[in-house]
Amino acid sequence: MFRRITFVFLCLCTAVFSLQPVWAGSSDLSAFDGLSGRLTIAGGTAHIPVMKQAARQIMSHNPDIAITVAGGGSGVGVQKVGAGLVDIGNTGRALSEKERDKFGLKSYAFAVDGVGLAVHPDNPVNNLSKDQVKGIFAGGIGSWKQVGGADRQINLYTRDEASGTRSVFRKKALDKGPVAVEANVIQSNGAMKVAISRDPDAIGYLSIGHMDDSVSGVAIDGVSPTRENAKDGSYPVVRKLYMNTKGEPGKLARAFIDYLQGPRGAHIVSENGFIPAGQ
Amino acid sequence: MTGKDRLIFFFAWSCALVTTIVVCGLLGFIAWQGGAVLGPALFFGDAPAWAAISGQIPVWDGIWPACAGTLVLVLLAAALALPFGLGCGLYLAVLAKGRKKAFCSLCINQLAGTPSIVMGLFGFAMILFLRRTFLPGANTCLLLAGVCLAVLILPYIVRATQNAVEAIPLTQRLIGPSLGLTLWQNMVHCILPQASRGILGGVILAVGRAAEDTAVILLTGVVANAGLPRGVLGPFEALPFTIYYLAAEYRSQSELQTGFGACLVLLILSASLFVAARWIQRKIENTWY
């Protein structure tokens, strides 16, 4: 009996010690001890869930810190941080040379986001060559039959001109090729997912983080749009998500950036469907 | 009825029917989708309700701060736009003549046709200008968003006032002056009370417009998390932005449901403003007639 209790006790100790790294991770938040004031963040809408969750953890840990997160898109992120209206401006793309020089911005990548092709789950097509993808989006291939599917017309879905997802897809999957004018223009990742899941003849592209069972991912040249493939670099259609500051970040901004680039930040990034940039 | 009469009767009748069906269908859909999540959790997330309402603890998953922000924003915009709109409308209806009237009308039309995103950019540019010149600490805030929204809804109030006053028969508009009332007395005791119904109609339209606009506030101070508005110089949350953001970036069905819930709340908010306006209207009629 006594032995058994000792054994259970030892097991418990082992469990506690093996949990230690998780607890040690919470020391990340200790970087915010003694800090106070307001940190303002604006820019890419895709960043908001990550930023909000980080803000929630930090503000729960230290109520003297107030963090506000606004949207507006990548362009607004650059403008606002450049004009000094916010401490951190988020972009879903790398800054252009011009933007960097004009405002003296510094970029900090914290997450990688893949952009994947998707079709309706009932569609048997699950792999396309790059040329086929280009042909489909340019409008040259108009039937699923031409790429091994049913004899039905392909319904194209694309994103609006301002979308960062569109720009990375066009650049890396279509080699800056054209998108047919007949393509239906969709405003967001969420709406894209719904559109594809309701149209058996649809093809479109969306953030890998947004993909779930309601759509079926299509491999390009045999590489599936999964987080694992985006992580190890085999899937090419990826973009980084950045935080940008005007010159060197202040104390609070520095701590925030370090937090998101650290292990706890990586956890938040993964929870929101992105891949931590450090991995 | 001749054949043509019958045609126009049928056309008008079916148009009215289609409009009604569309509106009811839309309301029904939002009520059906949003009604499912309508409850304390939609407003306060996992925070206790009373502490959240009074702002003692921050709300993270609920739309309560956005509701409060929208209400404050709309009231601020309406308060800023009303005096200017009333004055300008009265000027156009009673005082302005000839070229001045035509020019002023043109300006109002131009303003009414300005897309709301332009108003947002205008506010953004204004803050940049202020920062570079005499207010280096200026930043996007509730006041700026209120001012930009006020400019956006100004034409509605101007037109409503002008139309309401011009709709009063000339004989009635002249009763006051003929009895020796001054311009001020005539305005306050004769013209405004008679035009109040039309003006309030315009104000309701304007307030509804202010409550639903996203583009203006997007660039002038709305944020995804700010808690309850703490002053006119701070950031704020608003329902249209919450809806826009949830619709654009939702990842799970429950987030989309929250978006529909927020839509429903925005509709209810607009409807209650409407009811309140009607109530005020009736009050005015009771006192002044």
Automatic annotation (TrEMBL), chain A:
One Pfam family for this entry, by name? Answer: PBP_like_2
Name the keywords, alphabetized: Phosphate transport, Signal, Transport
Signal peptide as annotated in the record: 1-24
**Source organism:** Desulfosalsimonas propionicica
Protein's GO biological process = phosphate ion transport
CDD domains on file: PBP2_phosphate_like_1
Which family does this protein fall into? Answer: Belongs to the PstS family.
What residue stretches are annotated with the PBP domain? 37-261
What does it do? Involved in the system for phosphate transport across the cytoplasmic membrane.
Q: Does the keyword Signal apply?
A: yes
Name the chain's protein.
Phosphate-binding protein
Give the source's domain of life in one word. Bacteria
- Would the keyword Translocase be found if you checked this record's keyword annotation? no
Q: Which Gene Ontology terms cover its molecular function?
A: phosphate ion binding
From TrEMBL, chain B:
The record lists the membrane-crossing segments as 7-32, 63-94, 106-130, 136-158, 259-280
Membrane topology recorded in Swiss-Prot or TrEMBL:
Multi-pass membrane protein
User: According to its record, what are the GO cellular component terms?
Assistant: plasma membrane
- Localization terms from the record: Cell membrane
Keyword Transport in the entry? The reply is yes
Residue stretches making up the ABC transmembrane type-1 domain: 67-277
Q: Which PROSITE patterns match?
A: ABC_TM1
Keyword vocabulary terms for this entry: Membrane, Transmembrane, Transmembrane helix, Transport
SUPFAM superfamilies the record matches: MetI-like
Pfam families, per this entry?
A: BPD_transp_1
Q: Does the keyword Transmembrane helix apply?
A: yes
From the UniProt record, give one GO term of the biological process aspect: transmembrane transport
Family membership noted in the UniProt record: Belongs to the binding-protein-dependent transport system permease family.
This chain's protein is named: Phosphate transport system permease protein
